[in-house]
Amino acid sequence: MTEREHEHVRVAVIGSGFGGLGAAVRLRREGVTDFVVLERADAVGGTWRDNSYPGCACDVPSHLYSFSFAPNPHWPRTFSGQGRIREYLEHVADVFRLRPHIRLNSEVQELRWDDERLWWEIDTASGTLTADVVVSATGPLSDPKTPDIPGIDTFPGKVFHSARWDHDYDLRGKRVAMIGTGASAIQIVPAIQKEVGKLTLFQRTPPWVMPRADRAISKAERWVHRRLPFTTQARRGLLWGIRELQVQAFTKRPNELGLVEQLAKRNMYRAIKDPALRAKLTPDYRIGCKRILLSNTYYPALAQPNVDVVASGLSEIRGNTLVAADGTEAEVDAIVFGTGFHVTDMPIAQRVIGADGVSLAESWKGGMAALRGATAAGFPNFMTVIGPNTGLGNSSMILMIEAQLNYLADYLRQLNVLGGRVALTPRASAVAGWNNRVQDRMKRTVWNTGGCNSWYLDENGVNTTVWPGTTTEFRQATRHVDVGEYEVVRAPAESPEARTGKGSKNKEASAA
Fold it and tell me: Of 8, 142, 494, 507, which one has the greatest count of Cβ atoms within 10 A?
């Protein structure tokens, strides 16, 4: 075994997207330099590395979709494309000197908690190591979900997911099927419509699409942001404040969203003149129940003569013929799945084995639940960034990530205060109490009452994804670790029972 295979670190971070790099920066700021960032790919960037499909861009304004501690005065547009965001993440890795901590091509294969040594044993594609604390920042948009369609194995053409785009495959002149109408699909459709021979969009549920207020940021604006950094922060603050004011409509008064629906319909009517096509594209659920999408080019692309919209999901494949649930058929040369990700059943959960020998996936079989969106009962010193019920329907996830990094920082401080070989594991009652409060607030939100079936809901119909409040509320809830919500676990040699020969480990009453 190599020296690295025997390595022990204070903290192991999984993933090098916004969550993982943000955690690494925060660790350095807290004086923790004994850490590694384990990345399965050959470069940093997370979902912004993986999603390189034509037209890929963010639907959150650039100055809000970036770290508060790493403002970027150089954003060229109000909404940035995938390439620019990936460049930003590479820049963060360089500026904050994170490269020495990053282990590329090191996919985590298993994490197993050692009850005796109070650390995590980590098997990766590049070797093994142990860590006192593990921070899982794999993100919910990291593992593509492709439906199991009868006949898919016999399809003679090209098949790929939007998050695994095959840039070597030439779409020009081809008959292409786009499966799905989510955030990726509405960017892909207008990006490829002009070059393909025929584009068939298989739509199970039409999305609500609002205009995208995108524009180039002028050289003068960028000059001001460079020379006067407070203007960048002011711009970010304004974007944040507007979205905070919108939250009430999503979480408490969904009926107030009717006016927004009218604006979305007007956006459609400007481009879609055919009444039959309008009918196909008009949602029958409250706007906001699914994520509101932004595009100025989606509807115009659908109105083009080489595009067909099949208002029914794909149900079967016979050779190169795709058959929809309503019997509509289309012959195609290539299939692009824009069918989302494993959000409520994250694959990393199958690889995390906790204190009782139970995997995180098994623990979450009845639904994901974590204390303050971060820690799960039975998994000591294990924290998830962008965990259960931390997603947003109208603002920037970077705000939530930074709030969880505050929680991580205080978590490590509490471990230092306790001293010695020690771990914190959330009380099951604390996790249940937090989750019950979140789910109670969820009952009147648009995501639960809007009449849709979205990826926010798990297989039991429970919303384990979205945060039912403002980012301010979440930041307050994660500002400090309440040690009373945790059990303190001591290493056997340090426990009172071990010293008196009465036991092998001790779970202290944290109030003691």
Answer: 142
Is 223 within a domain?
no
- The domain spanning residue 28 has which CATH number? 3.50.50.60
Crossing angle of helices 219-227/229-251, nearest 10°? Answer: 110
Residue 497 lies in a domain: yes
Integer distance in angstroms from the first to the last C-alpha of the chain? 43
User: Could you give the CA distance from residue 196 to residue 172 in angstroms, rounded to a whole number?
Assistant: 5
> Based on the domain organization, do 157 and 42 belong to the same domain?
no
Q: Is 340 left (phi over 0), alpha (psi -120 to 50) or beta?
A: left
Which among 130, 97, 98 has a CA at the least distance from the CA of 112? 130
380 part of a folded domain: yes
Same-domain status, 262 and 165: yes
Distance, CA of 298 to CA of 214 (rounded, Å): 14
Q: Are 436 and 133 in contact (CB under 8 A)?
A: no
3-state SS, residue 148 = coil
| 352 and 333 assigned to the same domain | no
Nearest-angstrom CA–CA distance, 293 and 212 = 9
Structural tokens at position 214: 């995108």
**Predicted confidence pLDDT, tens digits, the chain (512 residues):** 344 457 999 999 999 999 999 999 999 999 999 999 999 999 999 999 999 999 999 999 999 999 999 999 999 999 999 999 999 999 999 999 999 999 999 999 999 999 999 999 999 999 999 999 999 999 999 999 999 999 999 999 999 999 999 999 999 999 999 999 999 999 999 999 999 999 999 999 999 999 999 999 999 999 999 999 999 999 999 999 999 999 999 999 999 999 999 999 999 999 999 999 999 999 999 999 999 999 999 999 999 999 999 999 999 999 999 999 999 999 999 999 999 999 999 999 999 999 999 999 999 999 999 999 999 999 999 999 999 999 998 999 999 999 999 999 999 999 999 999 999 999 999 999 999 999 999 999 999 999 999 999 999 999 999 999 999 999 999 999 999 999 999 987 655 444 333 333 445 543 33
Cα 342 to the chain's mean position, in Å? 10
Residues 12 and 54 in one domain: yes
- Residue-number span of the structural domain to which 477 is assigned: 4-143+342-508
391 and 302 both lie in a single domain: no
Q: What is the DSSP string of 396-426?
A: -HHHHHHHHHHHHHHHHHHHHHH-SSEEEEE
347 lies in a domain? Answer: yes
Residue that has been written with the tokens 């490269």 in this structure:
99
| Widest pairwise Cα distance in the chain | 82
